[in-house]
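Re: the pair you flagged

First of the two:
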Amino acid sequence: MAQRPWRRAGLKHPSLVALVVLLALALLALSYLPSPPNGDHGRAPSPHVAPAPPAPASLLLAPRPQRDVAITPCGDKPPNRETKRQRGKGRRLRGQRAPTPSPCVDHPCRQGGSPQEDRLCFGETVPPWLSEDDIQKMKLLAHGQVVSKSRVPAHGQVLRIRLHADGDTQPTSPGEDCGDGRCGLIKRSTDLYEVVAFHLDRVLGLNRSLPAVARRFSSPILPYSYTNGASRPLIWWAPDVQHLEDTNNDQNSCALGWLQYQEMLRSHSVAPVAGGTACASIQRGEWGRLALFDFLLQVHDRLDRYCCGFEPDAFEPCVEEMLHEKCRNPSELFLVHILVRKSAPSRLVFIDNAGRPQQPEAKLNFRLLQGIDSFPETAVAVLRSGCLAHRLLKSLYTDQELWESQGGAVGLWPLLQVLERRGQILLRYLQEHNLTVVRDTLH
């Protein structure tokens, strides 16, 4: 019997060849198909918390929500890394889920996110760095009824108000003083950065600033300039802050000169200072906390009110008040706003923390760090994590008045990136000067 040509050539049956070719073409076509959309099925797990019911536009504080319990270094759930078993080395399977980008690497929310999307990004839980006491004071500041007002001597644009919170069992009398902790200071609308400073203090684990919120006022008790619809910072009034009796130096608990301060840092001891009974018990680690905080915010008033650490512009108060000229004579330089509380004399209190968010990097004041040889471990760890800006967003979301007045995450992000950048500059400074970090022993 004559052999067919395809058998003489050693080929398989034509139908098998065609089947193999068709199968190869089908697999090739499948590889070019688009991946299925992320609908309700097959959605990759989100790094953010699950959606929550809509919340009121006011401060998200009452009632006390459930606190975060399991939190990664960036405060988010870790990305899902489920994969199928892989054969061979170096081959990527289509079934592998790509890790979700960390929100600490890029902007955590979509540009122009809606309020619902913001809740998905930042959640309704109170961040763990805000204490129960912080929450209660923030609720009082944000929602308390204004029952009286008074001026603060030598501070023309600051108004002290007495507040009555809903649910208080004891009536609040307008004539009472502020010894019970129910008062706050209304500052200028241009000082809203001080609210950001409060949250920075808590995120870094310093816990030396007084609670602060943004608020719009409508009380008829207040002057019209305070009720014109602009958001203003309201700072909790600490009734036991110690002040010198000297009216020219009442913004200090003790009078401390620059040279005394530097000698104290070098000798690891307490320098003899006027009013020293108030400052003799200040822990050495407090100065590292203060220097780190002031450098990130570029607050000069405490450690360098004379602007000796950079070349100020002509319109700077230190130039207009002829303070900058005193830089030539260090014996005439004094620290300001060095305060402690009677209830915690070993801890500094940070006030007037508005700082300078627009200070360019070329004019960053490194004099604020002079003499400091160690910094708090917790704060440095936050800076090293690269998560400072994201944690601040999560914290600032609890203050809805500030959040909305500044345009939400999109409006706040450039400012927080400045703080993140300054943190990286500070870390480089620590490395270049071989400075150390110390464990936080006093909270």
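Second of the two:
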Amino acid sequence: SAVQQVRQRPLDCSGQSAWVHGNSLVNYMKMVEFVGLSGPIKFDTSGLRTNFEMDLMELQLGGLAKVGSWNSLDHLDLARVEKKAEEGGTTDPMANKTFVITAILNPPYTMLVESHKKLSGNARFEGFAVDLAKELSVILGFNYTFKLVDDDKYGGETSPGNWNGMLGEVMDGTADFCIADISITSSRASAFAFTMPWLNLGISILYVKPRAAAPSLLAFLDPFTTDVYICTLLVFVLVTLLIYVLARFSPNQWEEPDACEKNPEEYSNQFNFLNSFWFVLGALMQQGSDIVPISLCVRFASGMWYFFALIMIASYTANLAAFLTVETLERPIESVEALAAQQEIWYGALEGGSTAGFFENSN
């Protein structure tokens, strides 16, 4: 046999020129047969390896163990006896497999164990999600490794088809699934498969307890509205004019002047305009006055005004006592809709969570 020396100048991988001896070298390689680390090595006419066999290994508690083999003719051949499920007699697809579970620190669901010893593996974590994963592994017969999400986020769609947080790690294969207090939204459910929820919660608002409103100098005006005060003032003026007119036109209201006045030329009437005003004001304040009506018409008008004043003062006193007894609290918001509609109170939510997405998309 002769040995041929082949020399070739460098070629550009993106160029159009090819090595003239390339096809010959590939044909020589297809003809080679030898036994390597993975068994007999032989290529077919297409350059693909043929007639070979590989061992299927599984990482178990005692180390790597052979559980089967695969060859190009018979394909997969499992030598392991699968554990049968207790109910139904079928093999659980998760049995004897190891999964990576991603989680996020959030008490009481996932927490770090407080210990003076240096812990490793799943022993570093505790909480409801950790206990749930442990019970599932016992029932379904799988192994698992807990890991914390790298960016400390639950998961949101950053761009079409791209997710961050725990959901992003599940999508890119860093983790097999996540067990955490994550909400099921329409956008998440369209990209990921969720189990039945094990806890149902709504959006809760945490804010400072409502404090007592600052006392006002005009708090005594709170029992009645402005319209009531205006109507009461108009009635006060009307009754004053009514009593004044009735007293002036009623002959029984005129009487002789005081005995100190000698030779009086005319009778006197106590109900002039100022005295009528003072009489009506004294009746409204339930204090009375020295002016006494004599004629029947003036007494009837005064009686009606006294009854009206009695009702008004009783209502005012009862309402004022209620306003002073019941503490008035400032309630800036009453619901999530009110919080989203206002611009004065600043609020925040966990970045990448469903609550933050709700406020971002709310209108």
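Residues 283 and 307 are 9 Å apart (CA to CA).

-B.
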